[in-house]
Amino acid sequence: xxxxxxxxxxxxxxxxxxxxxxxxxxxxxxxxxxxxxxxxxxxxxxxxxxxxxxxxxxxxxxxxxxxxxxxxxxxxxxxxxxxxxxxxxxxxxxxxxxxxxxxxxxxxxxxxxxxxxxxxxxxxxxxxxxxxxxxxxxxxxxxxxxxxxxxxxxxxxxxxxxxxxxxxxxxxxxxxxxxxxxxxxxxxxxxxxxxxxxxxxxxxxxxxxxxxxxxxxxxxxxxxxxxxxxxxxxxxxxxxxxxxxxxxxxxxxxxxxxxxxxxxxxxxxxxxxxxxxxxxxxxxxxxxxxxxxxxxxxxxxxxxxxxxxxxxxxxxxxxxxxxxxxxxxxxxxxxxxxxxxxxxxxxxxxxxxxxxxxxxxxxxxxxxxxxxxxxxxxxxx
Length: 381
Hints:
By secondary structure, this protein is an alpha+beta fold. The chain is 20% helix and 31% strand. The chain is globular and about 65 Å long.
């Protein structure tokens, strides 16, 4: 399988996005992929997702890997923290880290069990930055085939209270999208065009990722837009990032990378401690047995001002460094800046007041703005 190619959008679909005043990110010819960063009214798109509407995001820069072969499940079971044996039924899915031998993250993926294959949704750049080499390294004699479908596959995200109703009205599905738990999936057609759907709560609201042949991008976008009527807004990546940060959902390449053990990112729910051996299992199990990790990903809430810069130091009252900001945004929900960052043990209890860029920041649990408890992130269904 050749290295993953840069995903490109069909010209007609690109023109449709530009008619909506899209702002592109990574438009440099040397960039690996381009991102629909924002549209003409980000505030309206944000509140459509958070209130009674929905947002439609072009996520076609994301990567798709298909794994097939008679020994796929047994082989992949030894490379992830999740338990593939929970995915017996077609349409079941999970979100799982891929750790290395040191227990640190090579990648994460949303895996969906489709007929005769496992379908992986990945952050852009993941395959060439290490995951593909990691997977190939562990294929010895197993009957396993890796197929990079990123160049052929487009992906849209549909997020918000009306997302399931829009899908129900626009397509014919093997299973009602409204019945799907997190990471479960279904498949069917929109105007005769084949589409795969996977429930994805990355915004903290009802949400789905739709994947399909890249050549069908324009008619599927238009069909969804028509079905959504005045309650569906084009949603840029920057606004989706605000929603994600508020929801406290870590993103590979932003809050997680090869310096992070999944437990440090509060991804314990994505680890099956009873499933048996997998790469990095001893390190992760030992950390779980010892108790609290040396650092943990937390939400930081500010009283006002601008959002802090990613990479900013987090300090205690004595001026000592106790952590680092990984991502930040202005939260319309709180009307205040919010950040995700790693905070060291003994300084990361909710309610602790720390300082970032000379300003006070209150430590809170992930997903703090959205509900009274932790944001649910089911591992499989």
